[in-house]
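Lecture notes, continued. The same structure-token format from the folding unit now serves as the input rather than the output. Read the line below as a description of shape only.
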């Protein structure tokens, strides 16, 4: 897919240039290419107006037409094409009040957040780099384009993005840029938690969550972000430094909620699936810090939750190093994986007792389920019947 999207982008640039327009590849894809990383998205910027872009290509979609973006549906991969533009004031610190199309590539790059993201790649492979982004990449520096106070005053989310890029790359945030984040930290409260969540999802997956949390505290952002109480920095930072690169970003939300003492991380509007996973991880953690997992724990909770709960118990110094292969092995040895695999049904319980159906059936199926999982009886109808009848009669 990566090769296809690059080929599609270069082909689109070529077609626009042949039609008489300036066109280049811009954004994070260029940064990642310089750094030798793969890019998931490749964007094109052009002097052509949106309607002119649509006239050049036969298949397009108006994905962001209000801001000058047209999706060109290329046979190899869809690519977003955006007209060169400048942006008006950001009265809400989140989005521009207006955009203005321009014919200057330099003016288009000037509006971008950091020098590493303000580099254009031409069709012949050469770079247009008016703000020194390539040198900053080589030096491992994250630097705002132009005046950092202006950049963060326009869009406060850029402060979170600076930290996220530091976590992704291991680069240092340049001192003037760092200072401006501290001065504008309070304005992060004006940014929707949905936008912040999208950035933090990437922070958790970066492999450097500890660095990110340290920067959040140093800049004062932590004091303004939900669940990041700066007073806990001394005890929490060592945990985040050992967090590593998780399999899923939800692990970051689970650890944040655990350290904050919040049940689900609701301030960030997690999805229902994410909230469920956070609860499962927290449950697994609570079990593991008090005792080893038993077979019912392995049966009830997903392997990912069990492994992550154990990992968190280790991160917080409450257990030894987690052994994920042990969980996989023991889960594979469980006699059943769900109640549907029991060699008995509710109708059989009714038939064996001669009683009418009722809540007792569900209760006894649960007891049988636990007895089978824990190895107290085999998952065989005759064995279950004898065990059940004895227990049922003893309760009458």
């Amino acid at each position: 897919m990566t090769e296809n999207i690059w080929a599609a982008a270069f082909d689109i640039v070529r077609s626009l240039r042949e039609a008489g327009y300036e066109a280049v590849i811009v954004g994070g894809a260029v940064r990642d290419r310089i750094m030798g990383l793969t890019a998931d998205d490749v964007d094109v910027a052009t002097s052509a107006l949106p309607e002119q872009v649509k006239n050049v290509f036969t298949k397009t979609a108006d994905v962001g037409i209000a801001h000058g973006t047209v999706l060109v549906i290329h046979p190899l991969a869809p690519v977003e094409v955006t007209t060169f533009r400048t942006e008006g004031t950001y009265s809400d610190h989140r989005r521009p009040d207006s955009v203005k199309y321009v014919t200057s590539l330099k003016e288009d790059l000037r509006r971008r957040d950091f020098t590493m993201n303000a580099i254009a790649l031409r069709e012949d492979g050469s770079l247009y780099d008016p703000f020194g982004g390539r040198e900053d990449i080589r030096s491992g520096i994250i630097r705002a384009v132009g005046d950092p106070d202006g950049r963060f005053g326009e869009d406060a989310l850029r402060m979170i993005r600076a930290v996220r890029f530091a976590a992704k790359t291991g680069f240092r945030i340049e001192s003037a840029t760092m200072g401006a984040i501290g001065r504008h930290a309070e304005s992060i409260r004006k940014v929707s938690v949905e936008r912040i969540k999208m950035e933090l999802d990437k922070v958790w997956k970066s492999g450097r969550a500890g660095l990110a949390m340290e920067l959040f505290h140093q800049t004062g952002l932590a004091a303004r972000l939900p669940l990041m109480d700066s007073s806990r920095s001394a005890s929490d930072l060592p945990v985040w430094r050992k967090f590593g690169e998780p399999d899923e970003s939800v692990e970051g939300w689970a650890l944040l909620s655990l350290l904050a003492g919040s049940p689900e991380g609701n301030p960030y509007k997690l999805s229902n699936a994410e909230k469920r996973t956070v609860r499962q991880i927290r449950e697994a953690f609570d079990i593991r810090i008090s005792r080893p997992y038993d077979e019912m724990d392995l049966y009830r909770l997903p392997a990912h939750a069990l492994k992550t709960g154990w990992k968190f118990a280790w991160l917080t110094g409450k257990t030894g190093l987690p052994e994920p292969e042990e969980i996989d092995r023991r889960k594979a040895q469980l006699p059943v994986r769900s109640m549907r695999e029991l060699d008995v049904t509710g109708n059989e319980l009714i038939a064996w007792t001669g009683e009418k159906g009722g809540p007792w059936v569900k209760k006894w199926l649960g007891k049988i389920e636990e007895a089978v999982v824990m190895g107290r009886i085999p998952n065989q109808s005759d064995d279950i019947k004898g065990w059940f009848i004895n227990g049922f009669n003893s309760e009458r």
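Point for the exam: Residues 143-234 form a domain with the Hydrophobic Seed Protein fold (CATH 1.10.110.30).
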